[in-house]
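Researcher: Quick test of sequence recovery. Tokens follow.
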């Protein structure tokens, strides 16, 4: 049995939209222009990579949280997880390439039983490693010694925290998450993260709880640093503000609140040519939990792989081909080019 949204799109009883259904829904919207046309207007279509500075590896969709706006649709019930064999293929690809940064994400990446092995192998190769951490994982049994492990391997920790106040954080991530997140940040501070001297970089990430664009990153960072230091004695190096991409749980939220078309129109109207030229997909490659290759994490969730002339799986990694590939774009890409732009590294401009 199915229900129907205002856009006449069939939706399964459990509220989950498939990747194909999401792309269809976005394509049905009557927007002022399509993303490809926006790129054409600034002589940027087709969109081509400029090299590969980052290999982002999604090691699984299992997570100890179920956040309202999660673009991965991660949670405790997800069983997709990267095997040791696929990780070994990632390491082999890195060993034969000149990619300086490895960005490990999930789900909660630390729940993968081979997470530490992957970190160690990547740091052995001299690569800068990033851990996309949800903070509360550090308070679980398996994560109790993670702050020391991450510090020992000089891993940059990028942590999700919707707000420096409890109400907005718990609304988006679940009751009690804020208090646990604060404790986890204090644990990271205790081993040197965020002190500005140790070189242990600690970054916080925030995204809006509603259907609107994030605030200016520079002013928000100053406010957050002041408030977290004053209230909890917490120090961190930078704040990234990220625009919500209309996929998975967030597109479902927009459909349920009847805000999808308005939100997309806002993204289209805020298209920034400068941000478009600096989108993260131009300098990265994304590896799925099963080893399949994508232009970015968002295309990965929509199951839109790299162009056909390139290898589709990490086992066949070809740096020369992948660093000159044409990037697949669609309407969801407007989220990365709206306002000051949005990427895994925060604002683009």
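Model:
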């Amino acid at each position: 049995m199915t229900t129907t949204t205002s856009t006449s799109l069939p939706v399964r009883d459990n509220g989950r939209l498939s990747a194909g259904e999401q792309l269809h829904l976005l394509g049905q919207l009557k927007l002022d222009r399509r993303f490809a046309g926006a790129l054409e207007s600034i002589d940027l279509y087709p969109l081509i990579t400029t090299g590969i500075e980052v290999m982002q590896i999604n090691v699984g969709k299992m997570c100890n949280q179920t956040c309202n706006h999660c673009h991965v649709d991660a949670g405790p019930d997800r069983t997709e997880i990267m095997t040791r064999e696929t990780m070994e293929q990632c390491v082999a690809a890195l060993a034969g390439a000149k990619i300086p940064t490895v960005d490990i994400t999930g789900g909660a990446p630390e729940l993968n039983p081979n997470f530490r092995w992957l970190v160690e192998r990547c740091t052995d190769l001299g690569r800068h490693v990033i851990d996309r951490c949800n903070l509360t994982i550090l308070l679980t049994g398996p994560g109790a010694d993670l702050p020391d492990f991450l510090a020992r391997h000089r891993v940059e920790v990028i942590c999700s925290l919707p707000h420096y106040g409890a109400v907005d954080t718990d609304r988006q991530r679940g009751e009690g998450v804020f208090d646990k997140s604060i404790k986890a940040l204090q644990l990271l501070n205790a081993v040197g993260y965020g002190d500005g001297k140790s070189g242990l970089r600690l970054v916080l990430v925030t995204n809006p709880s509603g259907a609107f664009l994030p605030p200016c990153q520079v002013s928000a960072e100053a406010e957050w640093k002041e408030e977290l230091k004053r209230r909890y004695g917490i120090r961190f190096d930078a704040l990234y503000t990220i625009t919500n991409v209309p996929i998975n749980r967030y597109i479902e939220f927009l459909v349920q609140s009847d805000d999808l078309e308005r939100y997309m129109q806002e993204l289209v109207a805020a298209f920034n040519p400068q941000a478009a030229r600096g989108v993260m997909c131009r300098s990265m490659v994304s590896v799925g939990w099963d080893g399949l290759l994508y232009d970015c994490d968002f295309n990965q969730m929509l199951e839109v792989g790299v162009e056909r002339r390139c290898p589709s799986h990490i086992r066949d990694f070809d740096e020369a081909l992948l660093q000159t590939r044409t990037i697949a774009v669609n309407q969801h890409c407007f989220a990365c080019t709206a306002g000051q732009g949005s990427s895994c590294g925060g604002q683009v401009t």
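The two ends are 46 Å apart (CA to CA).
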